[in-house]
Design goal:
alpha/beta, Hypothetical Protein Ychn, Chain: A, 5-stranded parallel sheet, 7 helices, about 40% helix
């Protein structure tokens, strides 16, 4: 006795046959699979520092991965939140003290005004080399579909409101959500 018989061509409540309903379900499933794109790679970046030099790495990596079609999330927490803050992002500074890449000893870097000088020098070099600004990289990320997230606990700690952030930033994201993104990601980076 064979169980390989064709489905009966019976009309159902909507007037469609079982075969027609089955074909419709197959088409819907194919559409959902195409939307989910299971072969799409995912990257999650945790951004924790809010200095000028540390704002670049997560934004450059995120925008580049998005350009390659990756699903990218950048979770900003603690000082990294300043990168997404409407006002604070404009005043990000370069810290001269403890920066081994700067050509000055810490004793000299600790002199008042050295951070401001190092920041001016870096911004001048950025402009001279026509390197994208932080705001331009944020715009590219948002336009490319990168999800820029603001940590809820840090928002509360720093007394920031949703309106304090650049338009397009996802605010109020908890650590549990960030962990879920990391668990699903092919690459996880802490910057």
């Amino acid at each position: 006795m064979s169980t390989d018989s064709a489905a009966p061509d019976v009309d159902t409540e909507g007037g469609a046959t079982v075969e027609e309903q089955l074909e419709e379900l197959r088409e819907e499933l194919a559409e959902v699979k195409a939307e989910v794109a299971p072969d799409q790679k995912k990257m999650t970046i945790i951004s924790t520092k809010g200095t000028l030099d540390m704002a670049y790495p997560p934004l450059i990596l995120a925008s580049t991965a998005a350009a390659f079609g990756w699903d990218v999330t950048v979770f900003h927490t603690f000082w990294g939140l300043d990168i997404l803050h409407k006002e604070k992002t404009k005043g990000l500074k370069l810290s001269a003290v403890g920066n081994p890449s700067l050509p000055m000893p810490n004793l000299l870097a600790a002199i008042p005004g050295m951070d401001a000088m190092a920041t001016r020098m870096m911004k001048s070099k950025i402009k001279k080399n026509q390197t994208a600004t932080i705001q331009e990289l944020i715009d590219v990320c948002l336009e490319s579909g990168v999800e820029l997230q603001a940590c809820q606990m840090t928002q509360d700690l720093m007394d920031y409101d949703e309106d304090d952030f650049i338009e397009g930033v996802t605010t109020g994201v908890g650590a549990a959500t960030a962990i879920d993104h990391m668990a699903e990601a092919d690459i996880q980076l802490l910057v």
